[in-house]
Amino acid sequence: MQLYGRSSSHFTRIPRIFAVELEVAIAFHPIRDLMSGDPGDYGGHPALKMPTLVTGAGQWFGSLPICRELARCSELNLDISWPEDPPRPVASNAQELVNTAMATEVGLIMGKAAGAPADNAHQVKLRASLLGAMDWLETNAVRAIDTLPPERDLSFLEVSLFCLVEHLQFREVLPLEPYPALRAFAQRFSARSSARATPYQFDFPAA
Ligand SMILES: N[C@@H](CCC(=O)N[C@@H](CS)C(=O)NCC(=O)O)C(=O)O
Question: What pLDDT, on a 0 to 100 scale, did the predictor assign at position 205?
Answer without folding.
Answer: 84
